[in-house]
Sequence to fold (170 residues):
Amino acid sequence: MLQFEVNGKAGKQVVKFPTTLTELSGDFLTSICKDIEVADNHAIVCLCYRETIANVLFTASSKKKNSITTAVVPKFVKAGNTDNDFIKGIMSGNTLVVPASDLALGYHVTGANNPYTINYLLKVSDGDTTLYQKALKFEDVVYFIEFKIIPTCNIKGYYTPIKKYEASNK
Fold:
């Protein structure tokens, strides 16, 4: 986690953002979306955007709004009722294989307790005149997350977590 202090119009506060995908566990993603009900044969997908704090702040302050172009990693959160055994086998937090066009056409939903959005960063940093200079020194890239609902037929595959095996010298 990258942790830093912001002193904006809303006052001084500490802000945290994940620096690895493993910090966005399935349990965490499910907890953010616990109040969202999903229709049959649809699923909530978390879109994980990887970007620097400085680039987000710079883009927000420039005239080229929405010019952040970064790769997105889709993670499964939960699905509505389905008879599809393939979908039932996907665990929350698994990385999905979904065409980008299908993600773009999904329905945007807001997790009420999502602390890792670009809008949240911009809201708490509004009025902080030194944050951009501090952010230029941050070496870590962070993840911002948003959620979409897509039809489960758009999920073409998923990755299971890779387990590290230790070699035994016995």
User: Anything to note?
Assistant: The chain has six helices and eight strands. The radius of gyration is 18 Å. Confidence is low (pLDDT under 50) at residues 165-170. The longest strand covers residues 42-51.
